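Narrative summary of target 7.
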Amino acid sequence: IGIDAKHVRLPKSATQKEVLQSIMSVNENLSVHGLIVQLPLDSINRIDTELITNAVSPDKDVDGLSCINAGKLSRGDLNDCFIPCTPNGCMELIRQTGVSVAGKHAVVIGRSKIVGAPMHDLLLWNHATVTTCHSKTPDLPEQVGRADILVVGAGRAEMVRGEWVKEGAVVIDCGINHVPDETKASGKRVVGDVHYASANQRAGFITPVPGGVGPMTVAMLMENTVQSAQRFLLRSQSHR
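Modeled conformation, tokenized:
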């Protein structure tokens, strides 16, 4: 699609200072329009992940993980920030069902910075009534049963059972879990956070794992990068 990608691979022995210096050099490079830092950081040295993600220039933060972009999203400034790729992909999948988000009851399971929390914000600012559930939610089946739109990103294999799901609901499964399976060469298979076979009996729409949310996440990263390049181009033209 015409995006030039460069992989900056630092050694496992990289220090926090070296990682920050590498990010700063990309921030200052005018020919680069997007920068993502692969998480989790796997250095042998202790590195503050929050410090690293916030070191990425908000103008190049195409993962949407810096506190500047997260703050704009939480306040509803959707046209002035980069939206994290997985929640953005989930919204696109919901859009393509033809189901309107406005006025619907949406339930998000999980509150991670990458999926759950931004997903809540996106649904809210698209006029859904949103309930966020997590490990301390006592009545999870009851909450799931109310959802017109259900987005699950909890990191627990097949935790959401089909009988919990409201008839006709839109179910978006962001989970990637490995479970033992002796029929596979690797001895395991990938499943989501939703028990697909049973949920598929009740859901109006449901995403498979793998092959559902994952490819959309990649597509949204590309979209954010193109948007970033366009913004840089517009800014440079207005400065002339």
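Residues 20 and 52 are 7 Å apart (CA to CA).
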